[in-house]
Design goal:
219 residues, three-stranded antiparallel beta sheet, 7 helices
């Protein structure tokens, strides 16, 4: 789901339903008091994306008058949107779960791109690919990447940062195990896109995937 937007007519915000205001905020609209219409969580900032006038127009044209405890799930414009009211306020749980899922996918896509050591490909996932190093491992052969994908998909990632601190820093960190090392990756949002922050150097121990032991070799 992509949910991001802005108001074409700021004076019209007061006339919108809470569900519409919520989507306006997600689509980058100014003037929406998101805290006032949602159940409290420090992660609301993660839902805001780049300004999208086309999406806001689609929201304005969609009747979204939910009951105090009601649910909308369906297409609006080009996007699939979910809005839930619970006891008179927006419950952003579904929307935030989508964000967290996006984070986990990004972490795994980053690790997968590190196997190929393709800086051009890495640029899709990080802020500065030049600051990513790969240990002593050689790049994985393109023909072997399907095999690597199965193993990379098994890597768990866990949020390691505090939500209150994340709110102020506008970033979130995840930790994941690679061999006997724990890697911590900080994610930031640029417009509507989440990226691994590689402003500082990131050292990825990719040689783990080729290590041999008494009873194992990863690849």
């Amino acid at each position: 789901m992509t949910v991001l937007a802005t108001m074409v007519f700021p004076l019209a915000i007061s006339a919108q339903t809470p569900a519409q205001k919520f989507l306006h905020y997600c689509y980058g609209a100014e003037g929406v008091d998101i805290v006032a219409i949602c159940h409290p969580t420090d992660d609301l900032w993660m839902l805001r994306g780049a300004k999208n006038d086309e999406a806001i127009k689609a929201v304005n044209e969609t009747p979204l008058r939910l009951a105090d405890s009601g649910l909308f799930s369906g297409p609006i414009g080009r996007d699939f949107c979910v809005v839930q009211m619970r006891n008179g306020k927006i419950d952003p749980s579904y929307n935030l779960e989508h964000v967290y899922s996006t984070h986990r996918q990004l972490v795994l896509q980053f690790v997968f791109a590190c196997l190929a050591q393709d800086k051009q490909d890495l640029a899709k996932f990080v802020t500065n690919p030049a600051n990513v190093s790969f240990g002593k491992a050689k790049p994985a052969a393109r023909g072997d990447l399907d095999v690597y994908a199965d193993v990379v998909s098994l890597l768990p990632s866990v949020r390691s940062s505090n939500s209150a601190s994340d709110k102020n820093a506008k970033s979130i960190s995840y930790r994941l195990p690679i061999g006997q090392q724990e890697i911590v990756l900080k994610l930031i949002k640029r417009g509507s896109t989440w990226l691994v922050d590689s402003t500082s150097p990131i050292k990825m121990p990719m040689e783990f995937f080729y290590e041999e032991g008494p009873s194992r070799k990863v690849f």
